[in-house]
Specification:
Order of helices and strands: EEEHHHHHEHEHEHEEEHEEHEEEH
Family: Belongs to the EIF-2B alpha/beta/delta subunits family. MtnA subfamily.
Catalytic activity: 5-(methylsulfanyl)-alpha-D-ribose 1-phosphate = 5-(methylsulfanyl)-D-ribulose 1-phosphate
Strand content: 5-15%
Protein name: Methylthioribose-1-phosphate isomerase
Distance between the termini: 40 Å
Pathway: Amino-acid biosynthesis; L-methionine biosynthesis via salvage pathway; L-methionine from S-methyl-5-thio-alpha-D-ribose 1-phosphate: step 1/6
Radius of gyration: 20 Å
Largest sheet: 7 strands, mixed
Number of helices: 11
Number of strands: 14
Bound molecules: 5-S-methyl-1-O-phosphono-5-thio-D-ribulose
Keywords: Amino-acid biosynthesis, Isomerase, Methionine biosynthesis
């Protein structure tokens, strides 16, 4: 079978627990972790068992449900929602979808509390909000994919970095959505997946999910991107993002900036795909986006093999910022946005 019909879901809500696909183990092992507490959700986000901007937002929303369900009064329930949302917000700093989802859960709880006197009905309405965040993400990504596909033509080579696919979202992904839709429509695209050092989201996740779906995907090391571009094998680049600033600067997995510079040098369009929930108009430019730094071991002994001298100094930023000048277009569920981003991103929220 090909296509997304038998794709793995990153998050499955079971009513009393969250079954979370442990992405650290992919592609070798498929294991769902039954999470029942916000602490377990926090740990899963922080340790990249679930990762990708929309997916961590969805996981955190369920974390709030899990952390507030035992409250005995409405006041205690509201207090628990706020407390757990604040706690889960400390799990990772860069992807704004995390804070967006938690803010949405807090706002929903306060509206529900205003309209509903029965505590059990309050809890159930908040659970519905989390489920809705997940189902909306799936629909949004499909629309993003449809818009993105209009930029591609049969036979094109398209390079992507990190994993902005079904695994990083509820389904379809953002940057990978057009590949699935192209395949459904019989359009042939040749995808190049950067392996994405140091955690290898490209090799372990993008190559895996595209291969599973029968998409034509070729894995390359990050340092081969310039070479494949210079050989004329790449007609476009498409990536996801963790946060877009108001001026169109884009934070995404470390290495994205280098790909954008290479694309510009080769006259290749550089596209960014994301839902509106990833656009942060409160952050004026990329300079204000908090960039997560992760442990040195990801570089010195990733996947259990020591590959660097002991006690070596290490710098391990998990994300970088691509200045908006390098971004050809941002593809959202509301359509394709071009420069000037400052003006055109803002318009999206008022249409
Ligand atoms: O550290 P990760 O794996 O969470 O980084 C993920 C990315 O950089 C993705 O490209 C981004 O979150 C977009 S996912 C649709």
């Amino acid at each position: 079978m090909s296509g997304m019909d038998n794709s793995l879901q990153s998050l499955i809500w079971k009513g009393d627990r969250l079954d979370l696909l442990d992405q650290r183990l992919l592609p070798e092992e498929i294991l769902y972790l039954p999470l029942t507490t916000p602490e377990e959700v926090w740990e899963a986000i922080s340790h990249l068992k679930v990762r990708g901007a929309p997916a961590i937002g969805i996981a955190a929303a369920y974390g709030v449900v899990l952390g507030s369900r035992d409250a005995a009064t409405k006041e205690a329930w509201l207090a628990a929602v706020t407390k757990q949302a604040e706690y889960l917000a400390t799990s990772r700093p860069t992807a704004v979808n995390l804070f967006w989802a938690l803010d949405r859960m807090k706002a929903a709880a306060s509206t529900i509390a205003g309209n509903e006197s029965d505590l059990e009905r309050c809890k159930s309405a908040l659970e519905t909000e989390a489920v809705t965040i997940q189902s909306e993400d799936e629909a949004t990504n499909k629309t993003i994919g449809e818009h993105a596909l209009t930029l591609f033509k049969d036979g094109m080579g398209v390079l992507t970095h990190c994993n902005a696919g079904g695994l990083a979202t509820a389904k379809y992904g953002t940057a990978l959505a057009p590949f699935y839709l192209a395949q459904e429509q019989g359009m042939k695209l040749k995808v190049f997946a950067d392996e994405t050092r140091p955690v290898l989201q490209g090799a372990r996740l993008t190559a895996f999910e595209l291969q599973q779906a029968g998409v034509d995907v070729t894995l390359i090391c990050d340092n081969m991107a310039g070479h494949v571009m210079s050989k004329g094998m790449v007609d476009a680049v498409i990536v996801g993002t963790d946060r877009v600033a108001a001026n169109g600067d884009v934070a995404n997995k470390i290495g994205t900036y280098s790909v954008a510079v290479l694309a510009k040098a080769h006259g290749i369009p550089f596209y960014v795909a994301c839902p509106l929930s990833t656009i942060d108009l409160e952050t004026p430019t990329g300079e204000q986006i908090p960039i997560e730094e992760r442990v040195a071991e990801e570089i010195t002994e990733g996947f259990g093999k020591r590959t660097a001298p002991r006690d070596i100094k290490v710098y391990n930023p998990a994300f970088d910022v691509t200045p908006h000048e390098y971004v050809t277009a941002i593809i959202t569920e509301k359509g394709i946005v071009h420069a000037p981003y400052e003006e055109n991103l803002r318009k999206l929220f008022h249409e």
